[in-house]
Automatic annotation (TrEMBL):
This is Histidine--tRNA ligase. The lineage of its organism: Bacteria, Pseudomonadati, Chlamydiota, Chlamydiia, Parachlamydiales. It holds the Pfam family HGTP_anticodon. It comes from Candidatus Rhabdochlamydia oedothoracis. It is an enzyme of class 6 (ligase). It catalyses: tRNA(His) + L-histidine + ATP = L-histidyl-tRNA(His) + AMP + diphosphate + H(+). It is found in: Cytoplasm.
Length: 430
């Protein structure tokens, strides 16, 4: 019996795949995860890891019951004691929960975290959108200074530059503080109510639950109505305007390109003040490769101290797909420096001893354990793209010497088995 993979999920494989699936090769994931970690740590963020599932009410309260994530997309189930649990659909609410429950706020200063891991959303699978997705995210808790917003955008921009991405578009907006949003929600509701019957079914529901969510609609029938809707920029408080102007000024100082998108609100209920999104034209409809913003009230809403915060998340699937479409650099998979091919049982014992010693000295070594003919070992070595090979038989055992041959140049060199480890590094340049 075969067990097909669950719809909306995929395997990440340690070998070459067909061209449309190159983004599923594990060495590419390892590479970008390494870059993400290095850049986050360089900017003062430290890794945090939270459970795959949490209490459902955390996301209902943290993400917002009116959001599509909570109302349509969560994987929710009852455990054996009847408690409602959900696979995490996003990373911010769990980080904030950990910050509160583990009393991390008792340490003074700005708290800066990053995470990498899978999220789960029951969506219609399509390019760039999956039911198990992977995100890298950062959260900065403890300051409402606009410079913190700028640092986050700069970090995201530096990550993309280091990964070699180009032709990216940064959109930014302010959704204001509480007083700004209350005034704007009233104005938007007043504008949309006469058009209620022309709105899509989803937008009619959003009109009742959270009118700002109507702005997220991509449907043409909604966009036609929204074309003349009031803009939140006209309802920003003095403090919100000043905050946003500082952010824009500092982005100009750093020469980070952006455009103000007055209808950008993001799809989560907890955002306030600065929101931003980075998109790529090469990902069609699902074109966002990273997004975030400020969420100054979320920690208090979840039972913690009244501390401001901001963060962003990057979808790794879309990031990889964008890099491949733009032909960005990827290092190749790790290859063995030396591949040993033993010809008999005694040679196998010696080859195993040598490969073990070589690996302990940071020389990547592998061997053929099949017991088949030399041609089979050579095929394996070529498949693994080994730098060099060495055949071990009776002659090598009796002489105490083995000859190593580089596959690319056919250059060969004979080494004493006793001193192989000492001399091999220089010959292989490792």
């Amino acid at each position: 019996m075969k067990y097909p993979i669950v719809k909306g999920t995929f395997d990440i494989l340690p070998q070459e795949t067909k061209e449309e699936d190159l983004w599923k090769e594990s060495h590419r994931w390892t590479y970008i995860e390494q870059i993400l970690r290095e850049e986050a740590i360089k900017h003062g963020f430290r890794e945090i890891r939270t459970p795959i599932f949490e209490r459902t009410e955390l996301f209902e309260r943290g993400v917002g019951a009116s959001s599509d994530i909570v109302s349509k997309e969560m994987y929710t189930f009852l455990d054996r004691k009847g408690r409602s649990l959900s696979l995490r659909p996003e990373g911010t609410a769990p980080v904030v929960r950990a910050f509160i429950s583990d009393h991390l706020y008792q340490t003074p200063g700005i708290h800066k975290f990053f995470y990498i891991g899978p999220m789960f959303r029951y969506e219609r699978p399509q390019a760039g959108r999956y039911r198990q997705l992977h995100q890298f995210g950062v959260e900065a808790i403890g300051t409402m200074h606009p410079y913190q917003d700028v640092e986050l955008i700069d970090l995201m921009y530096q990550i993309y530059q280091r990964l070699g991405l180009k032709n990216l578009s940064i959109s930014i907006n302010s959704v204001g503080d509480n007083s700004s949003r209350m005034a704007y929600q009233a104005a938007l509701l007043s504008y949309l109510t006469p058009h209620k019957d022309q709105l899509s079914e989803d937008s009619q529901i959003r009109l009742k639950k959270n009118v700002l969510r109507v702005l997220d609609s991509k449907l043409d029938q909604d966009q036609k109505i929204l074309k003349n809707a009031p803009l939140i920029s006209k309802y920003l408080s003095k403090e919100a305007k000043e905050h946003f102007q500082i952010v824009l000024h500092e982005l100009n100082q750093l020469k980070i390109p952006y455009q103000v998108e007055p209808r950008l609100v993001r799809g989560l209920d907890y955002y306030s003040n600065t929101v931003f999104e980075i998109t790529s034209e090469q990902l069609a409809a699902q074109n966002a490769v990273g997004a975030g913003g400020r969420y100054d009230g979320l920690i208090a809403d979840l039972g913690g101290p009244n501390l401001p915060a901001a963060g962003f998340a990057i979808g790794l699937e879309r990031l990889l797909q964008t890099m491949l479409k733009q032909e960005a650099f990827f290092p190749g998979p790790l290859k063995p420096n030396l591949f040993l091919i033993p010809m008999n049982n005694q040679a196998t014992q010696l080859a195993f001893k040598l490969t073990t010693q070589l690996k302990h000295k940071n020389i990547a070594a592998q061997m053929d354990l099949s017991g088949k003919k030399i041609q089979h070992g050579l095929q394996l070595a070529n498949l693994l793209q080994a730098t060099a090979i060495a055949v071990i038989g009776d002659e090598e055992i009796h002489s105490g010497k083995i000859t190593c041959k580089k596959l690319a140049t056919r250059e060969s060199h004979t080494f004493s088995i006793q001193h192989l480890i000492d001399n091999l590094k220089g010959w292989l340049n490792v």
